[in-house]
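[job 0412] stage=complex_fold ligand=magnesium ion status=START
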Amino acid sequence: MASGEFILGIDLGTTNSLVGVVDSGFPILLADAEGSRSTPSAVAYGRDGTMAVGAAALRQRALDPARTVTSVKRLIGRRPGEGEWQPPYDLRALGVTPVEVSAEILKHLRAVAERAMEGPISRAVITVPAFFNDAQRNATKRAGELAGLSVERILAEPTAAALAYGLDKLEEHRKIAVFDLGGGTFDVSILEMRDGVFQVLATAGDTQLGGDDIDRLLARHVWESSPLGKETWFEQLPAEARVRLVAAAEEAKKKLSTDTHASIELPFLWQGQSLGVDLPRGVLEQIAAPWAERARQHCWRALTDARVKPGDLDEVLLVGGSTRMPLVRRIAQDIFGREPNVSQNPDEAIARGAVIQAGMLSGALRQVVLLDVTPLSLGIETFGGLMNVIIPRNTTIPGKAGEMFTNAVANQDSMLVRVLQGERELAKDNWELGRVDVPFPPGPKGSARVGVQFAIDANGILQVLARDTATNHDVVLEIQNTAIDVDDAKVEAMIAESVEHAFEDMNERIWTEAKLKAEELLPAVEEALAQLGAEVDPTEAARIRACAARVASLLQSERHDARALKEANAALDDATQSLAVLLMDKAMEEALTRKGLV
Ligand code: ADP
Ligand code: MG
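[job 0412] stage=complex_fold status=DONE, emitting structure tokens
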């Protein structure tokens, strides 16, 4: 796949942003030159006109906080002054808009992807919170376009999370909750599967509730409980010291998600003095408990708005980096009364979902239709152009079935196996999936024995094996597309057609079968009469001839009267009963004579 055909999946987060792509059928997240798969959503505008994005921008923040833009997602698509959040910078002073800042982050992500995929990429799917209104979605789209990306889809974050968890295979009307606690915001959404896509039934949250708050609360606590804190308030610290302390608090917080103890060591933090504290998890949880509790009321609100009880949910997904905190997991479990699903990496789930959506749009990720039944019958063409079903429609797969076939004509040296799919009685009305010639040694009619076996695997791939049982010579034909190329509409049309044509189809099948039988019967009767001649009672011979003539005339007729031909065949069969006995006796006599027994 050329890089130009890729569609990027982007999680443009408040705190962190990620980018990925489906490569060789696998959704992957892409790392930057430093090996990091997550880019801080920060842009620093230097006084000298330089610009830094990501980790480099955060390094500048300590030096010049007013020129480092973070959490711009809280501002995008809002009118100036709208919303409660007051940023520690002034975009007007910097001369940029939220859309432009977001575009810088997206440009950076695009460059990360182009470097990794070694070529230009110009299309993307970008996620936004479920609560984003039209203005916010459009602003995000404009940011993408400003970054040189054609935005193929704006995807709701909880939907992306559900995709990452593979829940797009969920049955109709199943409901899930997505609990997303990131760096700056908390979102909870209740989704329902309807007509194969997730509908957001309700969403609630808090744009002022995130992991950042804990970092600040913890930093203040650490400062105030240290000897240094006795002299100066946390807020009075110079920006640089405060930024270092908050960063150290965040590190300690993360460590306490897995460990029960962490420590903070900051040499020469303030006025040449160092800070060192030991931090047990219990302290963090004490500080964070009221903060985490604030999530509870939002969850209840979303459940109430959606008219869903916790017990109605099939899954509760935890996403966002802050859901790594054991305290947060306990609270989520308590609210929803069930063990949340945390099998996916919470910082990457949304990006992964965006990548999956992008892969579906580009065709790089085939929507794997896991068929549990065959949508249409599979079979082969038999004598007279009829469909001989080997695996009927709606058979559960994987499965196997087979049948034995023989040669219809003497001295035939091969048999053409035409593999067909469809519900019609005549081969020509069904779809041909493939054909294969099975050779066998020539012999009298009916002497060949060709076994045909159909094996269909869980992916809907059909393998046809044809074996000449006399020589054990196998011919194998693999058909890839029994399921995938047949879409629902085509299947429905085929079934509708088979119903519509049921009568004529059935008549045609009976006719063909009767015709084959008549063609076999007539020469045999002719030969028997010639052989036995005088031994047959003249009236009986006349009756047989009359029956044979009727069969012959029906066979000639244009009308294809299947029922009449079938009855005529039966009458002829009946009339030749004693002829057959005579014939048998004669054959027996001849055999005995040959062996000198009579
Ligand atoms: P956003 O959606 O806001 O961009 P993320 O989902 O990336 O945010 O979450 C970022 C937040 O997750 C930060 O506050 C970070 O400190 C927090 N976080 C990341 N890893 C951990 C961890 N191991 N334990 C606790 N919090 C974490
Ligand atoms: Mg997020």
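The chain has 15 helices and 23 strands.
[job 0412] exit 0
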